[in-house]
């Protein structure tokens, strides 16, 4: 193995890697070592990258297979179709990307799909002077805080997840014939590490299947509080040129609000996942 220059991002999760130029994705032993560290820590940060779309997609390939975003039309300006803009910039009154404004509650990307994204890579381009931080929580460590009895009671439970990130609307009463939704385990098993993680979230999870409304709310609120424990977090303060990649199978994330009058632009690449179990 090579000797990568690394530093923890927080006691709970995350690692920063220095000395790697993602504009020339590393090969040899470095590439598998990066992926191994990422699986172990859940979140990986590279500073000062400043990648164009093709190089950003190539960097994402170090960790998995890039996929085109759902519910988004092909870009008309020649941009790579795998890259999704996350921005509050508007042209002719319409956002040029998705999730333009405000805060976002903790979630795992695309949990409303049958095969949610395995991972997400995000590149910082234009960053407001304050706010807009991305908060990460270890869903794996949150599960490990549960008692054995609690873990047993969650075994086999499934939950409905519903959301449309393109319009940034959580369905108040999801329509199972037309609305985007998926039913996934309340606790999922990581297919590569075998580690279990809580897989319900405050932003997208509607209910637990087979429970009364009261029982479902009680279980979910308890799990949400565990997931959102400040001791299980890393808060990322963005700088231009930052590249973050996180594992949606073991990590959840949220976003703080930021000044509406300031520009925020990031570019996102999602990596193909499989059905949670």
How would you describe this structure to a colleague?
The protein is an alpha+beta fold and 277 residues long. The protein has two domains: 172 residues, Double-stranded beta-helix (4-Layer Sandwich), CATH 3.60.130.10; 81 residues, no CATH class. 17% of the residues lie in helices and 29% in strands. It contains five helices and 19 strands. The strands form five sheets. Strands 1, 2, 3, 4, 5, 9, 17 and 19 form an eight-stranded mixed beta sheet that branches. The chain has a four-stranded antiparallel beta sheet with strand order 8-18-10-16. It is globular, with a radius of gyration of 18 Å. The two termini are 32 Å apart.
Could you name the key traits of this structure?
277 residues, globular, Double-stranded beta-helix, alpha+beta
CATH architecture of the largest domain: 4-Layer Sandwich
The domain tally reads 2
The beta-strand count equals: 19
Q: Kindly state the percentage of residues in helix.
A: 10-25%
* Tally of helical segments: 5
Average the pLDDT over all residues and give the rounded result: 92
Classify the fold: give the CATH topology of the largest domain.
Double-stranded beta-helix
Distance between the ends: 32 Å
Instruction: Give a short account of the largest sheet.
Output: 8 strands, mixed
Instruction: Specify the structural class.
Output: alpha+beta
CATH superfamily of the largest domain, by name, is Clavaminate synthase-like
Task: Please provide the ordered H/E string of secondary-structure elements.
Answer: EEHEHEEEEEEEHHEEEEEHEEEE
> Mind telling me the CATH class of the largest domain?
Alpha Beta
């Amino acid at each position: 193995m090579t000797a990568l220059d690394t530093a923890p991002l927080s006691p709970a999760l995350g690692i920063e890697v220095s000395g790697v130029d993602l504009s020339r994705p590393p090969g040899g032993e470095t590439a598998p070592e990066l992926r191994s560290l990422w699986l172990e820590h859940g979140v990986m940060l590279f500073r000062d990258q400043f990648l164009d779309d093709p190089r950003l997609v190539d960097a994402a390939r170090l960790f998995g297979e890039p996929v085109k975003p759902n519910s988004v039309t092909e870009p008309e300006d020649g941009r790579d179709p795998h890259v999704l803009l996350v921005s509050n910039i508007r042209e002719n009154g319409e956002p040029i990307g998705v999730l333009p404004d405000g805060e976002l509650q903790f979630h795992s990307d695309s949990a409303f799909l049958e095969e949610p994204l395995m991972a997400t890579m995000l590149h910082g381009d234009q960053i407001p002077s304050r706010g807009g931080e991305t908060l990460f929580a270890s869903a794996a460590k949150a599960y490990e805080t549960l008692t054995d009895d609690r873990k047993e009671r969650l075994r086999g439970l499934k939950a409905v997840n519903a959301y449309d990130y393109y319009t940034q609307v959580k369905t108040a009463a999801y329509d199972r014939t037309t609305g985007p939704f998926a039913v996934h385990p309340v606790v999922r098993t990581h297919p590569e590490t075998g580690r279990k993680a809580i897989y319900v979230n405050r932003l997208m999870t509607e209910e637990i299947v087979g429970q009364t409304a009261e029982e479902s709310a009680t279980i979910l609120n308890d799990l949400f509080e565990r997931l959102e424990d400040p001791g299980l977090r890393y808060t990322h303060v963005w700088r231009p040129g930052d590249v973050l990649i996180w594992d949606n199978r073991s990590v959840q994330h949220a976003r703080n609000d930021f000044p509406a009058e300031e520009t925020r632009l990031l570019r996102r690449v999602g990596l193909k996942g499989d059905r949670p179990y």
